[in-house]
Amino acid sequence: MKIKISELSYRVSYNLSLITIGSIIAVLPLKGIAVHEEFVTGGIFGFALMLHYAGLNLSPGILFAVLNIPLAVLGWFSVGRRFILYTIYAMVVATLAYELMDVDFGIENPVYASMACGGIMGFGLGLVLRTLGSNGGVDILAVVLNQKYNIGIGKTYFLFNLVLFSASATFLAPDTVIASIFTVLIGSMAINYVLALFSNRKLVMIISTKHHAIVEDIMENLHQGATILHGKGSYSGQDKPVVMTITNNVMLKRLEELVFTHDPAAIFIVENTFNVIGTGFSKRKLY
């Protein structure tokens, strides 16, 4: 039996597998790079690292688990139970991976170290965020504040990390703090890339007198849907039907060729869209 990707994303086995792989990948550079360079990687794990560098005689992995307990309780009563259960699993995997792994990437140049740490960490965190859970820590706080007070998730991360790096600057070398910020920036870029992977869509608007033939060809040959919108020329006042369809990078060139084969005078407008939710596309992510 064929399983759709949108249905697969709600399967427990899929979510647990992706969380396990993503959490382990995210922890690898923390244990193999960040600790050796004294980087503060942002979020609750970054806070745990800062406390460790400041002299608190506890492993960052254990500190991460302890700091997450009140946040998990908050999330249990404020966010969906499924979201929190997956998130708790991610936190447990991350803690165990950090405590059990013994790895040193051996990167000595701080610039290379921050690039590698941010890239690998962001890739792992992004995999977890593609599931119905999260990486814990600030993720939980950000979701709660967003749902209750409509505070943007990005604002919560920014303010938390601003306070975190400001505190780190009081006892860490300036070069180390700057490298830490660089690590977080690269990590954020990697997370966004992973989240956009396989989800990026192209919204295409086509203005043509041959709209009926174009729509028929889109459905028969590209096996995609299309919608005809009713437009009107601002100068002529004449009706100008607009064909709207959603495609991906792979099919975009075929769609362009199809349109201009029917009408060389057509207007072909392409807009990037991060994700499309609905029938035939992604399911709405319910926590």
* Main pleated sheet: 4 strands, antiparallel
Strand order of the largest sheet: 2-3-1-4
Distance between the termini: 27 Å
Beta content comes to: 5-15%
Summed over residues and divided by their number, the pLDDT gives a mean of 87
- Oligomer type: single chain
Sum up the overall morphology in one term: elongated
Instruction: Kindly state the percentage of residues in helix.
Output: 55-70%
Low-pLDDT runs: none
Structural domains: how many: 2
* Total E-strand runs: 4
- Helix/strand-derived class? alpha+beta
Number of helices: 11
Order of helices and strands: HHHHHHHHHEHEEHE
- Kindly provide the radius of gyration, computed on alpha-carbon positions and rounded to a whole number of angstroms: 24 Å
